[in-house]
Design goal:
160 residues; alpha+beta; 4 strands; 37% helix
């Protein structure tokens, strides 16, 4: 799904645990009400990164099933983040179970080029966020669906 822009909530990275949950929920509600996205992508609730789990929890408070239609949301998907999703305690919330595979065969090189812009996030070989590992994960996900490369998502909520 293409997107028209981004919203920066201006919270400090790796410090969301210091933000009152109500403030985080209020900012999510404000943005979702203004943007009215059809599809929302979130970090997985299984991620080991505390900011990712807090983002997921705040978003779920806003995107309860009975609010989705009024917010214009059809689908909420959790994405897979190398070195965060795979390192999380899978049993804690059921683990990351992808049900949606999106073909990125035509855009993988662009994804890798964009990833290089985030120098502090790219890891050295052979770690999970190294460029070769990102490519390998995309190849693995693609192979499971008969595609060259894919990204995997878990359906969190869907209104048909």
């Amino acid at each position: 799904y293409p997107f028209a822009g981004t919203e920066w909530l201006e919270f400090q990275t790796t410090r969301l645990d210091m933000v009152p949950m109500n403030d985080l929920i209020d900012r999510f509600r404000e943005v979702v009400s203004q943007v009215r996205p059809e599809v929302v992508y979130l970090p997985s609730p299984c991620d080991v990164h505390s900011d990712h789990r807090l983002v997921f929890d705040a978003a779920m408070a806003v995107m309860k099933p009975f609010y989705l239609r009024s917010l214009g949301i059809r689908r909420v998907l959790a994405c897979e983040i190398p070195s965060e999703t795979d390192a999380g305690p899978a049993a804690a919330r059921g683990g990351f179970t992808p049900q949606v595979l999106s073909d990125i065969s035509g855009t993988l090189e662009r994804k890798l080029a964009i990833m290089k812009l985030f120098e502090s996030e790219v890891q050295a070989e052979p770690l999970p966020r190294s460029l070769s590992a990102i490519r390998a994960l995309a190849r693995h996900r693609g192979a499971t669906a008969g595609m060259e490369y894919a990204e995997a998502f878990m359906v969190v909520r869907e209104v048909c």
